[in-house]
Amino acid sequence: MRRNTFLTAPIKGVEVKRSPVNQISQKRRKLMRERRAMLDETFGPKEEWQCSIPPMGITYWGECYGEVNGHELRKRSAGGSITDPENVVLLCNHHNQMVENRPIEARALGLVVR
Ligand SMILES: [Zn+2]
Question: What are the tens digits of pLDDT across the range 51-64?
């Protein structure tokens, strides 16, 4: 991109003042706030969150490990909502990784919806 290189190249003796780049869009920030509120309302305080796997009786995926977070049954990329409580279950890091690594099993268990 020769043109951009030219436009952004520093010029000796000229101080360029730029405002910081917005890493997260306002829209995305608002969505994440809504998600946070939904998770608080649906599951209570984060310190009390429990992984959904043990109550499902799934022992062959091993024991829980790591932080518990919300997992979307239908991914955003598949049109799933991250603010719909019906689309979110709680998973520990280990079981979230199992869902990623074993998509066929995860789908059979209802943890992945397409
Ligand atoms: Zn777990």
Answer: 999 999 999 999 99
How far is ligand 1, taken at its centre, from the CA of residue 84, in Å?
21
* 49 contacts 92 by C-beta, under 8 angstroms: no
Q: How far is the CA of 90 from the centre of ligand 1 (A)?
A: 8
Q: Which residues of the chain have pLDDT under 70?
A: 1-9
- Distance (Å) from CA 10 to ligand 1 centroid: 51
CB contact at 8 A, 90 and 51: yes
Q: Kindly report the number of other CB atoms within 10 A of residue 68's CB atom.
A: 20
Does pTM top 0.90 for this prediction? no
